[in-house]
Specification:
Radius of gyration: 22 Å
CATH superfamily of the largest domain: Reverse transcriptase/Diguanylate cyclase domain
Shape: globular
Number of strands: 9
Family: Belongs to the bacterial reverse transcriptase family.
Strand content: 5-15%
CATH architecture of the largest domain: 2-Layer Sandwich
Keywords: Antiviral defense, Magnesium, Metal-binding, Nucleotidyltransferase, RNA-directed DNA polymerase, Transferase
GO molecular function, one term: RNA-directed DNA polymerase activity
Distance between the termini: 50 Å
Number of domains: 2
Protein name: RNA-directed DNA polymerase
Largest sheet: 4 strands, antiparallel
Pfam family, one: RVT_1
Number of helices: 14
Structural class: alpha+beta
Length: 317
């Protein structure tokens, strides 16, 4: 690999037309704003920081290791449907999520992850810039929700954990997939999923030095004969993956009242109108991934213009 200095790569990529002096200080506090959506802080970078993040993602983050056999989030060509479909022939299921996922990944974890991948990094002077690079990727010592770099970083930071759990599952006839902070384990034997729960809790804390832990309040065991709901989808008795009917009903009620009674619509979605639009848009994009034919059904029922305005979060809403 022909490695080159970081600033030389930045100049080459933007033909000398983009400068980022913050790389010398790591101070990006003036380059983003913080918003709240559903009691969750989202940090929104300005154009300058977005441009730098695009550069650093291409030149550094995309070179970080990710276990592509088990991770289905934030990767081109795969999605939540693939994460769930792996489990369609199993009988027993354990699902959990990682508590406060992005915000629990701190600067030390980010730095350690980058340095582990230093051989495949095309930046020749990465050691000289590592501290400041990490500062441009974090807010208040954690990976922030809202930065385009955070999803890729989160996958890379869990590479060792994913590998360890994959090997355990392989040795114990278990199926494993991860989608962002959601972990799914399934098996043909009931006892093995309970044993896996203990193993996951132990290894996640151990490998991340007690920075990450599973959310026990959201941990759940299910089995065929009951409704198998994973990542907002259901596995039908024939093994087909479909959208949960509750999601469909919620979306259709909101679309109905948006068209017929705006006041009722506002009462249903509450005071956070922008957050509600964001949520409906997210659901529609999700349906488009899981079952595009259902999105077509919504267009026929509520109008292409209305559905697409929500889908793309139009200013006309």
């Amino acid at each position: 690999m022909n490695k080159r200095p970081l600033k030389e790569l930045l100049v080459a990529m933007h033909q000398g037309k983009f400068e980022f002096p913050e790389l010398d200080t790591g101070d990006i506090t003036s380059l983003y704003e913080t918003k709240k959506y559903n009691d969750r802080e989202v940090h929104v970078p300005n154009k300058k920081l977005r441009t730098f993040h695009s550069f650093i993602k291409l030149i550094l983050l995309d070179h970080l290791d990710t276990n592509e056999d088990v991770v289905f989030s934030y990767r081109k060509g795969v999605n939540a449907v693939d994460a769930v479909s792996k489990h369609s022939r199993s009988k027993y299921f354990f699902q959990t999520d990682i508590k406060n996922f992005f915000n629990s990944i701190d600067e030390d974890m980010v730095k350690e992850t980058i340095l582990k991948n230093i051989e495949q990094c095309p930046i020749s002077d990465i050691q000289d810039h590592i501290e400041k690079i990490v500062k441009t990727l974090t807010v208040n010592n954690s990976v922030p929700v809202g930065f385009s770099t955070s999803p890729t970083l989160s996958n890379a930071c869990l590479f060792t954990f994913d590998n360890t759990l994959q090997e355990y599952c392989k040795n114990n006839s278990l199926v494993f997939s991860r989608y962002s902070d959601d972990i799914i384990i399934s098996s043909m034997e009931k006892s093995s999923t309970f044993e896996a729960e203990k193993y996951i809790s132990q290894k996640l804390s151990e490998i991340t030095k007690n920075k990450l832990s599973i959310n026990e309040a959201k941990s759940k065991h299910t089995q065929t004969g009951n409704k198998i709901k994973l990542l907002g989808m259901v596995i039908l008795p024939n093994g087909k993956v479909s959208i949960d009917i509750k999601f469909k009903q919620d979306t259709e009620i909101k679309l109905h009242y948006y068209l017929t009674n705006k006041e009722t619509f506002k009462k249903i979605v509450g005071s956070d109108f922008d957050g509600a639009i964001e949520k409906i848009s997210g659901h529609l994009n999700y349906y488009n991934t899981v079952d595009p034919s259902y999105l077509d059904k919504l267009r026929k029922k509520y109008g292409t213009t209305t559905v697409d305005m929500f889908l793309h979060k139009s200013d006309k809403l």
